[in-house]
């Protein structure tokens, strides 16, 4: 067995660090008990069942004084050796009762199982099997080298009701065509214009809800706050819709949240009862979901019709960096491009972008604030940067690029709290991982959580240390720089298309908040535990007290020079970063679309090739790379 049982993590310490010592005692005890049981081998199913079953018979026969029994015992012993050898080439298997895992964030027991079974193992619940992958090389194989052999599997089934054939669940030809159509919409000019809007929305929230809280002294639930901020931003970015959820609720906002929560509910519910049409109408939550989808579809149809009318009225020439000042949304780009698609597909695309770009960023900001609440020294370093570079204005793209420590804080937050913590795939063909064969049809969980917290891949894996990625003027860490041990935005051709968008959004929000307010965990509120849906949520919110920052410097340094504080956060920051090839500094922060957009733009032509070679080279401006990058490269 490719056991990783050799790993020695003090398990109590891990559980505490997962929950940050903050889940309530009963939950902590349950988690500890389960952890003990997993590590004691209760769930182990190793070796050969046939060999185990025949062992008592063999022992009995071996006692036969006549000799024939001894002979049979010898034959059985030989067969047993063969069975054991065959079993060794089978995937290590953990068996268990699904109820053990339901009710707690699924990635926590998966981490404990990883410590016992290693980088690849099968998890069996009755007839249902999952293969859990926690190895950078195997992950690269699934996401990049052999990406053709995998589909989104269960994910497509779960998300069908809300995303249909949108980019996240889609596979095959639909995915290729839609990725090629959508990626160019996130070009350089688009992202620059979005950055301005991020600042507007962040300031709107800071001067509204947070200012009120600071004045009243009432704590704010920051997970909800970030969720609303991200919804306002993504609504403007995708279809130029003013949710303004930071200041009010309306039926469309309620409908969007109903659909989002339903998607999360379905991803963890044990029985997909909603597939039986009568239950879709009989069960109240399913009825609410149907009603919500109706509201969303009608709203989207209205927005599409309005945007179509605007495109006709403008009659503007479409170029690859097309951007309308009146409506710089992705929807406008798609309609102006003359993209011929059904309105159902367009709705699926918009809904997918809305969900993909909302929950994830909100979760990243939530956990970043949680980490910062425990690391005032990091807050000071962020402030020093923001004061020097941005001051009170809205950050520009160029300024965001200079906020290098702030960016590292987000990078480190995404390592400790990856969103989503698990990537889902289904093997379409057999695939081989060292001595193990994963058969076609297997459902696979790539545990990003395990990769990001692996003691084999990271020194002090559970510690918050933004300096771990090397010097601040080095490349922004991503799956390539870290050799697939770090996957904040996935990797390969299905890598997130909104990575740059999301990083800029998160940095902007953080810069605006840190410049203006002091935040502290609110005493007397429920402690912060984790629960999971598509992303990692808090159990009962992240409640924080907000106070105006006492020592805001009047203005940024006028010469624009940045004096970066260099003191490391902890002694651990001097620990060696994971050995991985680094990409050139120039490729650190790309403008515009995802670093994997080139791969998508040229999806059929580059199949089987490193999808990043084009994108990374493209940023250095090489002609060859531009050719590889296709439309997206040209756009940049
Ligand atoms: C911090 C915020 C974000 C995080 C952590 C994140 C993370 C990810 C990850 C890990 C994947 C890969 C999923 C997989 O391989 O199964 C992904 C895919 C995707 N993301 Fe993001 N994302 C973020 C923001 C965004 C934004 C803002 C958008 C849109 C504007 C977006 C759109 C998408 C889409 C469309 C895909 C599917 C790509 C494909 O399959 O071709 N994401 N994201």
From TrEMBL:
> Which keywords fit this entry according to its UniProt record?
Heme, Iron, Metal-binding, Monooxygenase, Oxidoreductase
Specify the domain of life of the species encoding this protein: Eukaryota
Q: Which InterPro entries match?
A: Cyt_P450 (IPR001128), Cyt_P450_CS (IPR017972), Cyt_P450_E_grp-I (IPR002401), Cyt_P450_sf (IPR036396), Cytochrome_P450_Monoox (IPR050196)
User: What residue stretch is flagged as signal peptide?
Assistant: none
The record's similarity note reads: Belongs to the cytochrome P450 family.
**Protein's UniProt name:** Cytochrome P450
Q: Which organism is it from?
A: Tetradesmus obliquus (Green alga)
